[in-house]
Amino acid sequence: MIVIGLTGGIASGKSTVAEELRRLGLPVFDADEVSRKAVEKGSAGLRQVAEAFGSQYLTADGSLDRAKVANLIFHDRQARKTLESIIHKIVWQQAEQFLQQCSERNFPAAVLDVPLLIECGWQNNVDRVWLVAVDVQEQIKRAMKRSGMAEDDVKQRIAAQMSLEAKKPYAHMIFDNSGELQQTLEQVQQEVDKILGEKFGR
Questions:
Q1: Is 175 helix (H, G, I), strand (E, B) or coil?
Q2: Cα–Cα distance for residue pair 139/147, rounded to 1 Å
Q3: Bridge partners of residue 7, in order along the sequence
Q4: Contact 132, 178 (CB under 8 A)
Q5: Which one, of 201, 173, 169, 167, lies nearest residue 187 by Cα?
Q6: What is the distance in angstroms between the CA of the first residue and the CA of the last residue of the chain?
Q7: What is the pTM of this model?
Q8: pLDDT tens sequence across 105-128
Q9: pLDDT of 58-111, one tens digit each?
Q10: Cα dihedral angle (16, 142, 84, 72), rounded to 10 degrees?
Q11: What sign results for the dihedral spanned by CA atoms 34, 35, 39, 44?
């Protein structure tokens, strides 16, 4: 089974590509969704976060105060590393289970949709890295439209992430999503066809 690591920056269109891969029949692991569940109320992950940062980062009902934690890790690099170490361990354990299940079901390929794939070093755990890319101005415009964030806030979020240029050397395939979406989806279809061709000798 070929393991594809799908990644991309904020508002790059990565989620759209992931949805297209599902439509084409490939199983996709959503690391963002698993990350959110990893620190849900009552979870082992949330208990670890509370132990690391204190109960003041929980809401009155015992849930994670996401806004407060987000503010902390944005300004405190060590706190961000601590949070990531807790969540990433849980996410990778579930990713391994996902891949095992896909292998047992004889899927020709499976996709790990992971925004921080390269930052985590998980590019070493996949066979192919697919990067969804847009130029920065388009990225800012789309992020503002999608989230309602101010331009300066979007720029700060982008600046806090690993840059597109730094990610490119790790990528086996780069989908330029700056233009028409249909062109990107056609590229995705072509790459999936190649993968299936390799797997089944087409």
A1: strand
A2: 12
A3: 131
A4: no
A5: 173
A6: 16
A7: 0.87
A8: 999 999 999 999 999 999 999 999
A9: 999 999 999 899 888 888 889 999 999 999 999 999 999 999 999 999 999 999
A10: -150
A11: positive
